[in-house]
Amino acid sequence: MNDVPILYSFRRCPYAIRSRMAIAVSGVQMQLREVVLKNKPPELLLTSPKGTVPVVRRVDGSVLEQSLDILDWVLSISDPAGWKAYPSDVLAEMANLIEENDVSFKQHLDQYKYADRYPDESKETYRARCHTYLQKLEDRLSVQPHLFSERVSYADVAIFPFVRQFSKVDEQWFAQAPYPALRNWLGRFATGDLFISVMKKYKPWRQGNPSMLFPSI
Ligand SMILES: N[C@@H](CCC(=O)N[C@@H](CS)C(=O)NCC(=O)O)C(=O)O
C-alpha cells in the first residue's frame, strides 16, 4: 500500500469534511486513517507534529498539513465537477471568503458553540457576532443557488461544513433565523449524496489495522 497516499481524518471535523468531499469528487484514492483527537496515533504525530487533522502523506513522503492544501492538490489532479473552473479574479474572491470563514467566522462559531467555556459574553452575543459573515453568504445565495454561480464551487464546499456546525448549535433557532437562502443551500448539501458518502463511520485506526480505501471502490 506504499503507492497510495495516507489521509488522517476525523469524521466530524469541518476541515476534514471539506477535504474528504474534494478527495471523493476527485476520485484520488487514499488510505483513510480515522483519528481520535484525544488519543492521536503516534504515526500522525510523526507525520505532522502539530497534530491537527486532516493530514495527507503523499507517496513521495511529502506532507500536506492544511485542509485547503489537500483540496488544491486533489483538485489539481482531477476536478470533474469544475469546482475550481472559474476565472482567476473569482478564485481570488473565493479565497477571501474562505479565509474570512477560517479566521474570524470560525472563532465566533467556536465561542457560540462552546459559550460555556467563554463566560465573558452570552451565547446570544457570540451568535450575533456570526451574523455579519452569515448575512454575506445569505446575500450571495439569495441571487444564485451557490455562492459564486449556478453551480457548486470550491468555496461552497470549503465553507459548508462550518455553516452546518453553526446550524447544529441551536437547530430550533436556525430553523427560523433570517437566512432562508442559506438554509436551503445547507439543506441541499447536507442531504446530498456526496456529503452522505463522506460521513460514513470508520473505526479509529491503529497500526496493524487493514487499510481502508477512501473513496471506497
Ligand atoms: N488550519 C487547519 C485546521 C485543522 C484543525 O484545527 N483541525 C482540528 C479538528 S476540527 C484539530 O485537529 N484539532 C486538534 C485537536 O483537537 O487536538 C486545516 O485547515 O487543516
Task: Describe, in plain words, how this protein is organized in 3D.
This protein is an alpha+beta fold and 217 residues long. It folds into two domains: 6-81 and 198-214, Glutaredoxin; 88-195, Glutathione S-transferase Yfyf (Class Pi), Chain A, domain 2 (Up-down Bundle). Helices cover 52% and strands 8% of the residues. It contains nine helices and five strands; from the N terminus they run E-H-E-H-E-E-H-H-H-H-H-H-H-E. It has a five-stranded mixed sheet with strand order 4-3-1-2-5. Helix 5 crosses helix 8 (180-190). The longest helix has 26 residues, at 88-113. The chain is globular, with a radius of gyration of 18 Å. The protein binds glutathione. The site of glutathione (GSH) has 11 residues, from helix 3.
